[in-house]
Every structure is written in structure tokens, then in C-alpha cells.
Amino acid sequence: MRTSVALAAAAASVLAVPALADYPERPIQIIVPYSAGGGTDLSVRLLADSLTRQLEGARVVVRNQPGGGGSVGTSAAIHARPDGYTLGTGAQGPLALLPHLGGTDYQLEDVNFIALFGRNLQVLVACANAPFQDFDAFMAHAKDNAVQVGNSGAGGANHISAEAFAKAADVKIESVPYPGSADARTACIGGHIDAMVASPAEALSASGAGQMTPLFVMEDERIDVFPDTPTAAEKGIDFTWSSWKGIIAPEGLPEEVKATLQEAIAAAVEDQEFRTAMEELGEFVVFEDAEAYEARAVADSEVARQTIEDLGLLGMNN
């Protein structure tokens, strides 16, 4: 990753180009496709504050437009006027998953990716009274038994990730949907299911209390929160997964405006005030430019499509 000095310099150089002196002239709004107060909303508000500090003379504000599992606000952003004053939150669910379930008026190819700024890491944990307490025991059990894995809703990110892992690892799972992550967590702690996909923050607090045991993290490398917990990759299974969020815009956005926004986000992500606040939320801060962001979305979309098709859910909302 580039250094904060280099990022700040790059942002400053772009913003200083005379041809861009008229952008931005007025407030920029970022549509969050979920209700206020959730993790995505809070993180985008932190980014908006940081962007306001980077884009001199412009205030960046958040507009919540929930509905349709995130598709309503995402659609509004994709179909907005391409002038750089209405942007969107490009989250994994609405972009890489929902179009395959059907019912959206957009597809992934309609998205203009600007930059990714954060990811939510995922950990598979053993629940109370599960017949396994580490990765190897889990794999041995799941080869011959359908492990009940809780999730926060059918077709959601942690449902898809669990099913996709099971396919990659050639093990058996039985997905158990709940109305939300809190309900799945309660069932896990109560020993009503064998395992669940959790965030590191959820897993840390529960494992410290002896209520959950982390089995593996869905990353390329081990994470600081669980240095003794392996990755699936190091165990020979080609699988990684995380939920992510970035900034998107409508197609037709002028390239110079897109460059200005991308460099401003790069600088905003390196802002220490932003990073500290994000870490306090349990968010993993990372910058990816438009090309890397789009490549991540396309790869996840293909995994999701295959998994959703295997589950018989393809186009279920059409």
C-alpha cells in the first residue's frame, strides 16, 4: 500500500489541476442504501467527514435510502446524474449478490467503481457444544456430517460465504437462516447450531467469554485479532471471502472528476482520525483503486452466482 505521504501528495496534485478548479462547487452526497446507525452507515459517515477535510471547499454528506436489501439506494446512485455530486455506497450484497437473486433494475456492469475503502472480515466459529473445536476436527466432522451453520438471512453475504466455502472444501453444511446476525449469534451461544460466520469483533468478545471458538479466518493471511487461528488457504483450500464497501458513481462520470474522487478517497483513507475511528468500529481499512475494486466485485459476483445457482435461488425475486 502506498504511504500516507505519497497518497496525500497524489491527492493534492490532482485537486490542484486548474481544469478541475470548478469541481466540487457544492455539497457532494453519498447515498447509503441502508438505514442510519448500522455499520455501513457509520463507516460511510466517517469517510464523508474525512473527504470533507480532503476536498477543500466542499462538504460531503450522507443520505440514507434503505429498501430492497440495499438495492433501492444502490439503484438511485447508479441512475443519478453523472456529475460527481451524487455518489453511492458500493456494498457487496447489493452489487455482487442481489442481481443474481433478481428484482434489481441494475447489473454489476452498470456500476462505475471509484474506490474501495473498507472490508468486513469473516471468521467461521464453532458454537457452544459443537462436536469440534479446531479446523481439523471441523473438517473431519463435516466430511461425514452436515454441520448446521447459522446465518443472518437466506441469500445474504454470510450465507453465501458458508456455502461457497463448503463447495470449495468439499464438506457438508446445512445453512440455518435467522432474521439477523444478533439472532444467529444468540442461537450459536445457546448451542442450537454447530457454527456460524461471524465478524472478528463478534468472535473476539464471544470467544473471550468461552461462548464461541474461532475455526478459521476467510483471508489470505492470519489476522492480528486471532494470530493462532489458521486461514483456509494455509490449510490447502483456495477460499477467501469478506464483505466490502466502497464508493460508486453513475456511468458517464467525467474521467477527471473520477480521478479527483479516487485520489481524495485514497488520501481520506490514510487520514489517521478516520483510521482510528474505523478501527474502533471493528472495520478493516484498506484502499483499492477503481480497477482493483471492480476486479474484487466481479470475482465475488461470479462465486455468488455459482453458489446461488447451486442453491436453486437464481432469479428467485424476478
Describe this structure in words.
The protein has 318 residues and is an alpha/beta fold. 42% of the residues lie in helices and 20% in strands. It has 2 domains: 186 residues, D-Maltodextrin-Binding Protein, domain 2; 113 residues, 3-Layer(aba) Sandwich (D-Maltodextrin-Binding Protein, domain 2). Strands 2-1-3-10-4-11 form a 6-stranded mixed sheet, with helices on both faces. The chain is globular and about 65 Å long. The N terminus is likely disordered.
CATH topology of the largest domain: D-Maltodextrin-Binding Protein, domain 2
CATH homologous superfamily caption of the largest domain: Bordetella uptake gene, domain 1
Kindly provide the radius of gyration, computed on alpha-carbon positions and rounded to a whole number of angstroms. Answer: 20 Å
The share of residues in extended strands comes to: 15-25%
Low-confidence stretches: 1-20
Q: Can you tell me the overall shape?
A: globular
- H/E topology pattern: HEHEHEHEEHEHEHEHEEHHEH
Overall pLDDT confidence: 91
Overall number of structural domains:
2
In CATH's first tier, which class of the largest domain applies?
A: Alpha Beta
Major sheet attributes: 6 strands, mixed
Give, in spatial order, the strands making up the sheet with the most strands.
2-1-3-10-4-11
**End-to-end C-alpha gap:** 41 Å
Count of β-strands: 11
